[in-house]
Specification:
With about 450 residues, the chain is of the alpha/beta class. The chain is built from eleven helices and 31 strands. Helix 3 crosses helix 6 (about 205-210). The chain is globular. GO terms for molecular function: mannose-1-phosphate guanylyltransferase (GTP) activity.
Length: about 450
């Protein structure tokens, strides 16, 4: 069986830790087996490896999450990178084309699709393996996995079975989205299941849909024509049109950690980062990403989250309102993880007198990693090395760098940096327009950079 993990979304419900660059699946707030902080995507991939599915898994994602995924999972996990965001049907179609033309998958292979961030026991992924047998047994177009409800939730969608004999699976009659409590109670009595976003199909099923749309089946060709795929969800494009849908019940632990109140229930510690929570602050969590102490006194049933993007102080039960409250609030991400390390915005100013912007960042580069050999067209940069050592390349010359060194990078100057040991620097950008897109990359690896530099100085 092949697995496709869907990694998308932007961060509003877990603001201020999550943002447009760091979705909830990348937040390191859970503990792994070694008591180290890990993210939801790291937890999920560890579980997939436990049941032997890691090697057959690919991740469909957007360009903005590639470096975050590589930073947290390494570079061995195949990434299906969507040229643009066009909803779940185009993402799954592109992944199907990848499996069809870039791997040894056959058209009869079962493919399971699931979100990248379920919070579940490992038994959940073992149950996914049973979807292949269900496809064989029923000859269904789609085999879904549904969670047996534990209460009449208004937050989830329900799979409603057809009337008839009881089996170890259900034949799906229709779906009901987020019913009120009374209807949810009725649905549960009728053996309906929560829709947890997991489904399986034969590879040929989606490939045939691509053929019917007159689109290429080759992965690289489809990627180039990605904008021709209908911008629509898989549910609307495929599920609603399928004539034979079955679902496999899952009776184990499953939880959506999409809001602060649900996420904090599963955190192993009530405090991450610098600060103090008084003893009389019952059921209160503090997550602080800044190097400033935060003190919480006599405040119970609250979440206090602090990041470079902002500060949230909320009653836990009220915390799901954050998405609505933040609607229309537009701010560039102040913290991002990259494959080479991370950066944090420390300050930003705009000066109307000369129409210039000034942005200050703290950049951390992992030992052995490097920034690409690139230039900027609309800004200059001043780098001050504060920790670690490495090599700096500029216009064909490589030299060593150490704490206290200051580098001035003017516009159009080709430059790169490599960390021999973990390297920290303060970067000050000055220009008329400071945007991440103002980067013209020439070379990516340090080996390439060394080959294209004629001088090396100590």
């Amino acid at each position: 069986m092949r697995l496709v993990l869907l990694s998308g979304g932007s961060g509003k419900r877990l603001w201020p830790l999550s943002n447009d660059a760091r979705s909830k699946q990348f937040l390191r707030v859970l503990e792994d087996h070694d008591k180290k902080l890990s993210s939801m995507v790291q937890r999920v991939f560890g579980q997939l490896n436990e049941v032997g599915l890691g090697q057959s898994t690919v991740i469909a994602t957007g360009k903005g999450q590639v470096e975050m995924l590589e930073n947290q999972l390494g570079k061995d996990v195949p990434l299906i990178v969507e040229p643009e965001r066009r909803d779940t049907f185009p993402a799954i179609a592109l992944a199907a084309a990848y499996l069809y033309t870039m791997t040894d998958s056959s058209l009869d292979d079962a493919v399971a699709v699931l979100p990248v961030d379920p919070y579940v026991d490992t038994a959940f992924f073992e149950r996914i393996l049973d979807l292949e047998n269900l496809l064989n047994e029923t000859k269904a177009d789609l085999a879904l996995m549904g969670v047996k409800p534990t209460y009449p939730s208004e937050k989830y969608g329900y799979m409603v079975p057809t009337k008839g004999e009881n089996k170890d699976y259900i034949k799906v009659d229709h779906f009901t989205e987020k019913p009120d409590t009374e209807l949810a109670k009725t649905l549960i009595k009728d053996s309906a299941l929560w829709n947890c976003g997991v489904f399986a199909f034969r590879l040929k099923y989606v490939i045939s849909i691509l053929e019917s749309l007159g689109l290429p089946l080759n992965y690289e060709e489809l990627s180039q024509q990605f904008n021709k795929l209908p911008k629509i969800s898989f549910d609307y494009a495929v599920v609603e049109k399928a004539k034979n849908i079955v679902a496999l019940p899952y009776d184990g632990f499953w939880k959506d950690l999409g809001t602060w109140n649900t996420l904090t229930e599963e955190m192993a510690t009530k405090q991450i980062g610098k600060g103090i929570i008084s003893d009389d602050s019952a059921n209160t969590n503090l997550i602080n990403e800044l190097d400033l102490p935060v003190t919480v006194l006599g405040v119970s049933n609250a979440i206090v989250a602090v990041s470079p993007d902002g500060i949230l102080v909320s009653d836990k039960e009220q915390s799901p309102r954050i998405k609505e409250v933040m609607k229309g609030f537009d701010q560039r991400p102040m913290y991002e993880e990259r494959k080479w390390g991370s950066y944090r915005v420390l300050d930003y100013s705009r000066y109307s007198a000369n129409n210039e912007e000034v942005l200050t960042k703290k950049i951390v580069i992992k030992a052995g990693a490097n920034l690409s050999y690139h230039c900027h067209h609309m800004r200059k940069e001043v780098w001050t090395i504060v920790k670690g050592s490495g090599c700096y390349a500029e216009n064909g010359v490589i030299r060593s760098i150490k704490p206290g060194d200051v580098v001035i990078v003017t516009a159009e100057t080709l430059h790169a940096i490599k960390a021999d040991e973990a390297l920290e620097l303060i970067e000050v950008q000055i220009g008329s327009q400071l945007i991440e897109e103002d980067i013209d990359r020439k070379l990516m690896t340090w080996k390439e950079i060394e080959m294209n530099c004629s001088q090396v100085r100590g």
